């Protein structure tokens, strides 16, 4: 009778030494035209409704400004958490191409529902009576349709944005080309968002919400068509099962072999590559050294053909190091949560501040309140291009070394803290103007202060974003195991999503404990909120410095591409 054994398994989360023909015949820079076109359409559509969501809720669904801000923060959080789910599905089951295509189609359905909420009077409450503080709240049905449309549109936007980043990076081979791609990915996202946050928002505010949402639908439809047109050029990644399975196997195998004594000899461990030149050295004093037990060979672990016979009791040393790499990155990743939280609060509250300020540009034109956020997008887009083409190359020529990704992220931390300090001082000026004109008790009163006052803080936020966002995406993409590449690019989105939820909770906590954030912000103390964010940001920066120092010390090997000068 034949002996029954556990299925043999070749680890899926290790990059093969050579790529198959099907991977090398496709890809290249030609695919980036299709991906850039798709990304532009997706962002035009997504930010066309998202950027003006607070105003839509206040003016069309009679929500209070702070409540509308909280709803918008939750929506932002969902949009930035969903890429992780999309990445898991892409890496495990469908691949990046199919996830991006399906997500774009889902967002089309969401746009149809949003058009209906704007077009049909039965799907929204009647407007507030002029000169009256009484406003009728939406009915349960109206809320259901509204939230269903927002949820569907959010799911489509969240599932496609960072999946396109992974698909685009997979078309290129050189690390330097991929680093440049991430910079221009960020630039394309911002440039598209600028157009939607100005032109489309202006249509929604000045002409018709339904027409604005219809433009968003058309942009989404064109994006999907362009994406499908480039299918024959893409180098598509093949899903290899859940990438987390390999990481979990390391933990399980290490626990099962917890009584096995560790060895310092490389030959006592299982290596994915048997050639002497490719054998990974054993980490003698690395983080979580006990995980090495998962790769130690014991009797019955390896079959006669040299493959793993018991995959939940033996892993390769390469898989162990993959898990160790992920664990090392978690502290740096977590520092990004409170880096983004102040920006999340600022981007939402700036819209409510703009609603209470003089937004006239000349005698006939009034800047839409939601378009104020375009200042951040213009600033970050301009400085991403400036840094990529001038500042970073100049720095490398002067110093002989490139500015590392960790250094870029750290500079971003400092600049974001500076922007919060500027915000606090500008808000103090706004509140003094309100007090001098005795407007505290007048809800909806326009403060005799130009909206330009809040531009400097938004410009500085954009500069900070230009440093840390591309740096984080590139860091995770290059450091994560190959099988987690989609998840790696979505890690920044996960940080942003969590940050929006943290910002929502923080604002709600301050509302409950203090009187700083009433429904009428003209009688509040937003400046105190900003000073709290300055303090928290400074502490978070110190935490980042500790994490970055430990990561640099513990990293086994600094990844430098000799041809490109890429440095982590």
TrEMBL record:
**Keyword Transmembrane helix part of the UniProt annotation:** yes
A single GO CC term for this protein reads: membrane
Where it sits in the cell: the answer is: Membrane
- Pfam families per the UniProt record, alphabetical: PTR2
Q: Which UniProt keywords apply?
A: Membrane, Transmembrane, Transmembrane helix
Record's keyword annotation contains Acyltransferase: no
Give the family per the record: Belongs to the major facilitator superfamily. Proton-dependent oligopeptide transporter (POT/PTR) (TC 2.A.17) family.
Protein name in UniProt: Protein NRT1/ PTR FAMILY 2.7-like
Q: Which organism is it from?
A: Gossypium gossypioides
């Amino acid at each position: 009778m034949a002996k029954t054994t556990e299925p043999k398994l070749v680890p899926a989360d290790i990059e093969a030494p050579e790529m198959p023909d099907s991977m090398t015949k496709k890809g290249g820079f030609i695919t980036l035209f299709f991906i850039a076109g798709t990304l532009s359409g997706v962002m035009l559509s997504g930010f066309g409704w998202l950027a003006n969501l607070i105003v839509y809720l206040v003016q069309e669904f009679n929500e209070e400004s702070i409540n509308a801000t909280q709803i918008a923060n939750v929506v932002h959080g969902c949009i930035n958490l969903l890429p992780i789910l999309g990445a898991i599905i892409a890496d495990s089951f469908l691949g990046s191409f199919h996830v991006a295509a399906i997500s774009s189609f889902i967002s089309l359905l969401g746009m149809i529902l949003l058009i209906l909420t704007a077009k049909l009077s039965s799907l929204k409450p009647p407007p507030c009576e002029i000169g009256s503080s009484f406003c009728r709240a939406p009915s349960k049905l109206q809320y259901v349709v509204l939230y269903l449309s927002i949820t569907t549109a959010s799911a489509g936007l969240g599932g496609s944005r960072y999946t396109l980043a992974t698909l685009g990076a997979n078309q290129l081979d050189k690390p330097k080309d991929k680093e440049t791609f991430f910079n221009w990915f960020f630039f394309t996202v911002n440039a598209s968002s600028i157009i939607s946050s100005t032109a489309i928002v202006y249509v929604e505010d000045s002409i018709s919400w339904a027409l604005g949402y219809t433009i968003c639908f058309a942009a989404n439809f064109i994006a999907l068509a362009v994406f499908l047109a480039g299918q024959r050029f893409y180098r598509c990644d093949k899903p290899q099962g859940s990438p987390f399975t390999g990481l979990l196997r390391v933990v399980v195998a290490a626990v099962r072999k917890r009584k096995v004594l560790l060895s310092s000899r490389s030959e006592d461990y299982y290596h994915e590559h048997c050639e002497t030149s490719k054998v990974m050295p054993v980490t003698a004093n690395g983080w979580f050294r006990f995980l090495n037990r998962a790769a130690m060979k014991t009797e019955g672990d390896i079959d006669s053909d040299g493959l793993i016979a018991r995959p939940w009791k033996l892993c390769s040393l390469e898989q162990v190091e993959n898990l160790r790499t992920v664990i090392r990155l978690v502290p740096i990743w977590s520092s990004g949560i409170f880096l983004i939280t102040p920006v999340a609060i600022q981007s939402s509250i700036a819209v409510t501040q703009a609603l209470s300020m003089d937004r006239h540009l000349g005698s006939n034109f009034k800047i839409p309140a939601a378009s104020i956020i375009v200042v951040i997008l213009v600033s970050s887009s301009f400085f991403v291009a400036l840094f990529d083409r001038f500042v970073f190359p100049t720095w490398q020529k002067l110093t002989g070394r490139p500015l590392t990704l960790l250094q870029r992220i750290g500079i971003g931390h400092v600049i974001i803290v500076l922007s919060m300090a500027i915000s606090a001082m500008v808000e103090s000026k706004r509140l003094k103007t309100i007090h001098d004109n005795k407007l505290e008790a007048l809800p909806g009163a326009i403060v005799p202060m130009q909206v330009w006052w809040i531009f400097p803080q938004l410009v500085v936020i954009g500069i900070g974003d230009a440093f840390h966002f591309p740096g984080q995406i590139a860091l995770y993409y290059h450091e994560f195991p190959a099988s987690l590449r989609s998840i790696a690019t979505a890690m920044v989105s996960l940080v942003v999503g969590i940050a929006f939820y943290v910002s929502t909770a923080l604002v709600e906590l301050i509302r409950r404990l203090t009187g700083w954030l009433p429904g009428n912000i003209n009688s509040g103390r937003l400046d105190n909120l900003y000073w709290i964010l300055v303090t928290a940001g400074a502490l978070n920066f110190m935490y980042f410095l500790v994490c970055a120092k430990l990561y640099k010390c513990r990293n086994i090997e600094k990844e430098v591409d000799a041809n490109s000068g890429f440095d982590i």
